[in-house]
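Two proteins were folded this term; both appear here.
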Amino acid sequence: MKQAEPLVREITVGQWGMISTRQASAVGVSRLDLSRLEKAGKLERMSTGIYRQTAAPQSQFDNVRAAWLSTEPETLAWKRYDEPSVIVGSSTAAWLHRIGDLQPEPYEFFSTTRRQSARDDVHFRQRTIASNELRIVEGLPATSVEQTIADLLQDVGDVSLVGAAFRDAATSGREPDRGRMEPMLAGLAKRYGFAPGNGGHVYDMLAVEAGTDPESVFVRYANQVDLQPYIDESVRKFMDEAVRKALAENKEWSEMLQRLGADVPRALSSGKVSRPDAG
């Protein structure tokens, strides 16, 4: 067991303190060795064939990491990043991105090949995601924010829930890219009452629901900022122009103010000059 422990540690360092029985076997550590380390309190069983060092920092994402690791248990995590065959998607990806308020379970995985799981908390879908829509999130390959939101609208359908995810992304500096999302949303346009293929209208619908559309942003800004000084200045300029126009049409007033050498708008507004008919 003493010889097994450093071999296990060498593998777990690069994958959240975890190791699979197949990875252990590849370096000469048997299932019996792992069982003994578990009994000694050095390891804990995460799921069938996956162990975790008890001394490793814990994370809320440990269970989904263990589930993903078990999909290709013989391969080290870091070797799967360049061309992952299994990636996290839909509501589980939203959870990793910390957008929306959706439950991550059952864990949603997209696989390039057909897969089935005996676990109730793991769900596979055969699907290939474009490489430019892949991200490493919390150490796992997952769909981008844009792809995740589009998938949520397809899978969940509730505009308010998906709008909340859209808002969380936008307010955390990750506003969904319209140009990339429009093609993703095009197939959903008819479902939501828009012209078939018009992904732009679907995007606008989500932005309005999220309160990130230009009109909502302006209203929110207007409610937070004191606009009265700007309004007062605009009104003053308008009144100045109106007074100048009125004086230009009233020769008697204009000649009188010229004799006094007064600034027209200020003189009238200060009350220092009386109207000609006021005596």
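Next, the second protein.
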Amino acid sequence: MKITYLGTGAAEGMPATFCACPVCLRSLKEGGKSLRMRSCTLLDDDILIDMGPDIHAQKLRFGLRLDGLRAIVYTHSHEDHQNLYALQNLCTASCSVHPWEQEAPITLYGNPWVHRRVYEALAQGERMLASRIRFQEVGPWQTFPVGKYTFHALRANHRPIAVEDCLISAITDGEKALLYANDTGELSPEVDEYLKKAGLRFDVVSMDCARGLLPGDGHMGWAECLRLRKRLTAIGAVDEHTRFILNHLSHMNDMTHAEWEAFAAPHGFQVAWDGLTVSC
């Protein structure tokens, strides 16, 4: 399993586009790993988890071949995770020259809110070739295959369920497993119960830490990440070999990448950066 973080920032990116707060200015000066594009992760070379507004810049920066993409798995429908214009490009013959019609279409997985936004984007576009994609709706506690992987959709705590039932994922190939936990605040006990029953043990746990040292809300902060590690340990879902990685970082953290690393490393956490590749 190869996990490549293409974007490790929150909705506003890092530094935020129009912001002059102290940490945004320090991040701009520090550069390098402190510069974060919006959230997007590549699994192996053909599965995206979310596809945000920076996907073209990510393609250029990391030399990606996205014409071989097999699937996009969406966590939710917020614009920093669901780039509809890129999907319209994919479904426009003049924008994507590729023998799509002779191969399997790209499959999109997501909740009904994500599905509705995809449908609306294709309806509003011009000369859309809808046959280039297909959509499979998924909800909490469902499992579904994507290539060689099994995805376990888990309920996130990001928005009120009536507004949108957002998802995170436990992903396994039968030998290795990843818990991909953003966007979400503190998870419900239902998640612990599901993971314990599923018997999954994670090699990598990727955690939302957008709130930094602030109290969590629809995103986790440092305190929630510590509690999540403790909860996963209690149900036997992690061990001393598990890598814990902080992701989806924002200027609410009030720390540059170097400051985050100095803070988190003594506690056994790694801090993600754009371009980080983890193999397990």
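The first strand starts at residue 2 and ends at 7. The helical segments are 22-30, 55-62, 84-90, 112-124, 189-198, 222-234, 257-264. These notes refer to the second protein only.
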